[in-house]
Specification:
Helix content of chain A: 25-40%
Oligomer: heterodimer
Helix content of chain B: over 70%
CATH architecture of the largest domain in chain B: Orthogonal Bundle
Largest sheet of chain B: none
Strand order of the largest sheet of chain A: 5-6-7-3-8
Number of strands of chain B: 0
Distance between the termini of chain B: 29 Å
Largest sheet of chain A: 5 strands, parallel
Radius of gyration of chain B: 22 Å
Largest interface: A-B, 23 and 20 residues
CATH topology of the largest domain in chain B: MetI-like fold
Order of helices and strands of chain A: EEEHEEHHHEHEHE
Number of helices of chain A: 6
CATH superfamily of the largest domain in chain B: MetI-like
Strand content of chain A: 25-35%
């Protein structure tokens, strides 16, 4: 079943953020949403995740769970990197370590998020979303704050681990869309 | 010597110097007043405390008061926390219990003690009074803690399908724990003050309060000072033990950071 949004509208007070927005992403395919800040990209992802309801329009989702790489990392500060993944993704510690290694945080399994730089927190955020056995991955500026070389490697691995999952990528950077092999591009 | 150790030694030295300064001031006041009926010297108090500590009755009274006040404190803490959770979950519970909490907070403790003397047996009065003092403090802090849980973390839990048990243990309890610990610190002092006051008014058998009452009747100022020192020492010891126990439980169940615990405990 494809991910389908039909005529979505959403306002916050007097400000209309989304107006009659529609998109369709077949199962296992990738879409990229480009646009300036305040254009409603995060609101759209929150609607898909079920965190907010649209004022009007319909949302149809593929079978299965959703994982979300939030723009603000939303990590649990009292848990280590490894425990953060276990708590959210429901996997065991060994699997959590493998996911940490995938984002080059293998040596930081026992470290706490407040010991991490912004980029490291973001990689943990990515690892948590990848570790969660989901059919759809929502990504809100997932590679922001990563230095260029590392960013390239993380994008390549994210691309690899997202195989067969439906991906909705929100970004300012068109090159990220290309590297993540997004077939559909929506401009907002 | 590491910077950390040097810092600790410096901190200890400052604390010791401040304590010594207060002792000197106390001694000066004692010399100026020059009447042991009004103020006894630190040395007299210490001598009397040593004499008292050598008797079995001292330990019976001290442990009796400690047991009653700890019981009241624990009952008040658990009830306050459970009530706060209930009120967060059910608005009817919040509406129902709010007036009772306001009433407890604004009623003078002496009124409660006198009422409790009518309702309960002497031994239970300090327990009840400690309970009443702790309940609104813990309730208020835990309620605040629950209402300030980061909604973004709750959204994350929702997206990742964390069940209720996980949300409680991984988000709510760690978020509320610093508020609970702050409440317990305040409430412990209150429960000692009010509990001992209840023992004094109720002349509870085998209690520090009864000893304080007799010190007043027989104008034994040295005894009054010595028993007051016992209350202060036990109150501090109980607070330290409780905070240590909460921290240890928090660490064991991954509710607070394992190292640098202070960073996550307000």
């Amino acid at each position: 079943m494809p991910l389908r949004l039909s005529n979505i509208c959403r306002s916050f007070g007097d400000k209309q953020v989304l107006c009659d927005f529609s998109m369709e992403v077949p199962e296992g395919e990738r879409a990229c949403i480009l646009g300036p800040s305040g254009g409603g990209k995060t609101t759209l992802l929150n609607i898909i995740a079920g965190l907010i309801l649209p004022d009007s329009g319909e949302v149809e989702l593929p079978e299965g769970k959703i994982s979300y790489i939030f723009q603000e990392n939303r990590l649990l500060p009292w848990l280590t990197a490894e425990e953060n993944i276990v708590a959210a993704a429901g996997c065991d510690k060994q699997a959590a370590r493998r996911w940490l290694e995938a984002v080059e945080l293998g040596n930081e399994a026992k470290s706490y998020p407040d010991e991490f730089s912004g980029g490291m927190k973001q990689r943990l955020n990515i690892a948590r979303a990848l570790a969660f056995d989901s059919a759809v991955i929502l990504m809100d500026e997932p590679f922001k704050g990563l230095d260029p070389e590392l960013r390239e490697r993380i994008i390549m691995r994210t691309d690899e681990y997202c195989r067969n999952r439906t991906v909705i990528l929100v970004t300012h950077d068109r090159s990220e869309c290309e590297m993540m092999k997004c077939i559909r591009i929506y401009e907002m | 010597m590491s910077a950390d150790r040097r810092g600790k030694i410096k901190q200890f030295t400052i604390k010791a110097a401040v304590a010594a300064l207060w002792l000197v001031l106390w001694q000066l006041v004692c010399i100026i007043v020059n009447m042991e009926l009004l103020v006894v010297s630190p040395l007299t108090m210490l001598r009397r405390l040593t004499e008292l500590a050598a008797t079995g009755e001292f330990w019976l009274c001290s442990l009796g008061s400690l047991g009653r006040i700890t019981e009241g404190f624990l009952l008040g803490s658990v009830t306050g926390a459970v009530l706060a959770m209930l009120c967060h979950q059910f608005s009817f519970a919040r509406e129902f219990f709010s007036p009772a909490i306001v009433l407890i907070k604004s009623t003078p403790v002496a009124s409660f003690i006198i009422l409790a003397l009518v309702w309960l047996t002497g031994q239970r009065v300090p327990v009840f009074i400690s309970f009443l003092m702790v309940l609104p403090v813990v309730y208020g802090n835990v309620s605040q803690g629950i209402s300030e849980v980061d909604p973004k973390l709750l959204e994350m839990a929702r997206v990742y399908g964390m069940n209720r048990k996980k949300r409680v243990t991984k988000i709510y309890i760690p978020s509320v724990l610093p508020y609970m610990m702050a409440a317990c610190r305040t409430a412990l002092g209150l429960s000692w003050k009010a509990g001992v006051a209840a023992e004094v008014i109720g002349v509870t058998k085998d209690s520090i309060g009864r000893k304080l009452y007799y010190s007043k009747i027989y104008l034994e100022t040295a005894d009054l000072f010595a028993w007051t020192a016992v209350v202060i020492i036990m109150s501090i010891a109980l607070e330290k033990t409780f905070i240590w126990a909460m921290g240890a439980i928090g660490k064991k169940f991954h509710l607070v950071r394992r190292e640098n615990n202070a960073a996550s405990v307000k």
